[in-house]
Design a protein that fits this description.
Radius of gyration: 20 Å
CATH superfamily of the largest domain: Elongation factor Ts, dimerisation domain
Strand order of the largest sheet: 1-2-3
Structural class: alpha+beta
Order of helices and strands: HHHEEHHHHHE
Shape: globular
CATH class of the largest domain: Alpha Beta
Helix content: 40-55%
Number of helices: 8
Strand content: 5-15%
CATH topology of the largest domain: Tetrahydropterin Synthase, Chain A
Distance between the termini: 60 Å
Amino acid sequence: MSIKAAQVKELRERTGAGMMDCKKALVETDGDMELALDLLRKKGAANAAKRAGRETKEGLILSYIHPGDRLGVLLELNCETDFVARTDDFAQLARTIAMQVAACNPIAVRREDIPEDEVAHERRIYEEQAKETGKPEPVIAKIVEGKLDKWFRESCLLEQVDVRDPSGGVTIQQLITDVSGKLGENVSVRRFARFAIGE
């Protein structure tokens, strides 16, 4: 099957991947645009996973003030080089993440960042709630773990679903992985601070 230049151009515009990568993906998927998109995302995710251990000492600090000036976020997003830190894709990702923090008020970047005593407190609450159901102990344990997992997904920035499209199910970590694959560097959220009037 011959792949048209217009198909390659469209795939490149949608993914930001190189021309040859786009052409290869279209050839592998017999010209199916959606399958080619998925294939490039998987390759990007695989490449991002390989880079995950690399140091991220460059990046930017972005400030986002929500309209009305009653809510603001400071976010530090890191990458490997100053060159990538100055790209539009990197800046757009930082803004998207800062808006997520403003909208969803996460308590930490990742699960490991939440203090143990806070996790233990939540676990105790769920255990008390589950015991009131009168179900057997193994079922109670599963209920507690399920509720705790849901709490982590709501409380940890990287596990939250992108607030711009909640039905899409794409997490902030997946957004970061996609941009990392596109930019060819490890990208990570270092920290954030959220300020709201009266809080």
